[in-house]
């Protein structure tokens, strides 16, 4: 009988976090959710923060529950993954210098223009190959520098969010490469921090941490946390692909890309954000990738994720919150059912319009966008959700077409992973809009990739190819075949006129 080994994934998303216990028998993995908790930002003195103490307390609760559910002391690893770009600062004597600031905070307003006044947009992209987003770490740090923040004067180390939690769990300060790649301060060709950009923007290079690869053991869980959790023996904390998309893409049940042939499949990590791209062996940095604002982020096993960040289901999530505040509480299932019967293509929006980025009244912002583009946004909630989903599917098509042109390949299959893979309507829209089959699942790809990268780190799996074979055996995909593509071809022409 095969020995089963347990691993705990602490997977934090923009809306919620979860502790997922993975039981791996060498062939298949079984998942059990041990703890789920909300992730609600907190505004203090007009600054939007992550509630770090509450999140860490919930993470410890997940460890306690996992220890109870992992009989015979079989828990062999703990790994943390989160979103990218955000960070905490550590001062002398392991002092946490305040709560990390949320990427949707307004402090980065105007910072891209300020950066380009010192270093050209072209040069920053040439060095980093990263998509320009106003909240990238480079612009957050520039905001601190221009505000003459005293935190930069006393900080010893900057740790990205998953690295920050790794430090709280083990006491070790280290930066894992996949999350470091979201900062726009890392040179993806050399794998090193860019001294050039730090110097040009007067950013403190000395606080950027030493870098480690996915699968590296950070160290044992601190004794005080192990005791609080009721663990009878030391448990290793292992850095997976700590950027959640890196872990999600690791768990895509597709054949790994070869070192030479362009990929014929793409991934779509679908949730609050939609991250659509391909896995390549080397960064792709040229005039075309810059023109379309594509990004080169670090993947596991030395790969690069050439992708585009798309606003994603944030449009629906923030609309739902707006309606709930007005007393119209509806589940996602109800909204999706109403969207399914709403008239098609009544209005279209570019999901990445800057007006949609921050918290607030999303239906009003969608209506204002439609007014600017000579469209009428329906007032019915189902029709608004349908507008969002159709627009997302068309943005996926637009992105795939540009990836194909840049790489000289044909994308034949779309692998959708993450929470959005449960949305059958969006998956069908995606297949129809793109004219390609969609393979949906696994839903918990991020946690699965986290867990199986821990297994690689512990020597229980040999390669990313082995990892993906485990996923394919454990979680059969749901396939959506394209249909009625002609109507989507017509809508794609309307949509293309909206994309800047």
Automatic annotation (TrEMBL):
GO terms for molecular function: ATP binding; glycerol kinase activity; rhamnulokinase activity. It comes from the Bacteria. CDD domains: ASKHA_NBD_FGGY_RhaB-like (cd07771). Its EC number is 2.7.1.5. Residues 267-456 form the Carbohydrate kinase FGGY C-terminal domain. GO terms for biological process: glycerol metabolic process; rhamnose catabolic process. Transmembrane segments: none annotated. Residues 7-249 form the Carbohydrate kinase FGGY N-terminal domain. One of its GO terms (cellular component) is cytosol. Keywords: ATP-binding, Disulfide bond, Kinase, Nucleotide-binding, Rhamnose metabolism, Transferase. Belongs to the FGGY kinase family. This is Rhamnulokinase. The lineage of its organism: Bacteria, Pseudomonadati, Planctomycetota, Planctomycetia, Isosphaerales. The gene is rhaB.
């Amino acid at each position: 009988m095969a020995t089963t080994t347990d691993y705990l994934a602490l997977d934090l998303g923009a809306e919620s976090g979860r502790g997922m216990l993975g039981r791996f028998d060498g062939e298949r993995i079984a998942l059990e959710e041990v703890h789920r908790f909300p992730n609600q930002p907190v505004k203090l003195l007009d600054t939007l923060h992550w509630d770090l103490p509450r999140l860490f307390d919930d993470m410890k609760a997940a460890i306690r529950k996992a220890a109870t559910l992992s009989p015979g002391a079989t828990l062999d690893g703990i790994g943390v993954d989160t979103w990218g770009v955000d960070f905490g600062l550590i001062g002398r004597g392991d002092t946490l210098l305040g709560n990390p600031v949320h990427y949707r905070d307004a402090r980065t307003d105007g910072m891209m223009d300020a950066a380009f006044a010192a270093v050209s947009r072209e040069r920053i992209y040439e060095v980093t190959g990263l998509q320009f987003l106003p909240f990238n770490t480079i612009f957050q740090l520039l905001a601190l520098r221009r505000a003459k923040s005293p935190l930069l004067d006393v900080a010893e180390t900057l740790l990205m969010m998953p690295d920050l939690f790794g430090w709280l769990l083990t006491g070790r300060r280290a930066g894992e490469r996949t999350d470091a790649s979201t900062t726009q301060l890392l040179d993806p060709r050399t794998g090193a921090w860019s001294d050039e950009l730090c110097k040009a923007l007067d950013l403190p290079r000395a606080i950027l941490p030493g870098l480690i690869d996915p699968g590296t053991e950070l160290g044992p869980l601190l004794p005080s946390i192990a005791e609080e959790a009721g663990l009878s023996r030391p448990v290793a904390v292992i850095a997976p692909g700590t950027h959640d998309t890196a872990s999600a893409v690791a768990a895509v049940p597709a054949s790994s890309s070869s070192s030479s042939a362009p990929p014929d499949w793409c991934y779509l990590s679908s949730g609050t954000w939609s991250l659509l791209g391909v896995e390549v062996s080397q960064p792709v940095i040229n005039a075309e990738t810059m023109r379309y604002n594509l990004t080169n982020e670090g993947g596991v096993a030395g790969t690069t994720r050439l992708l585009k960040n798309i606003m994603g289901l944030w449009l629906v999530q923030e609309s739902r919150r707006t309606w709930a505040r007005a007393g119209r509480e509806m589940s996602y299932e109800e909204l999706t059912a109403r969207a399914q019967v709403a008239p098609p293509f009544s209005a279209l929006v570019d999901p990445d319009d800057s007006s949609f980025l921050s918290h607030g009244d999303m239906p009003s912002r969608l209506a204002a966008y439609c007014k600017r583009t000579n469209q009428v946004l329906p007032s019915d909630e189902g029709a608004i959700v349908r507008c969002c989903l159709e627009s997302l599917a068309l943005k996926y098509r637009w992105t795939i077409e540009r990836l194909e042109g840049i790489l000289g390949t044909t994308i034949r299959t779309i692998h959708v992973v993450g929470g959005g893979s449960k949305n059958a309507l969006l998956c069908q829209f995606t297949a129809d809009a793109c004219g390609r089959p969609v393979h949906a699942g696994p839903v918990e790809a991020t946690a699965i990739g986290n867990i199986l990268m821990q297994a690689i780190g512990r020597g229980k799996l040999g390669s990313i190819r082995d990892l993906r074979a485990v996923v394919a055996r454990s979680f059969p995909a749901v396939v959506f075949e394209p249909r009625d593509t002609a109507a989507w071809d017509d809508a794609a022409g309307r949509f293309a006129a909206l994309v800047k």
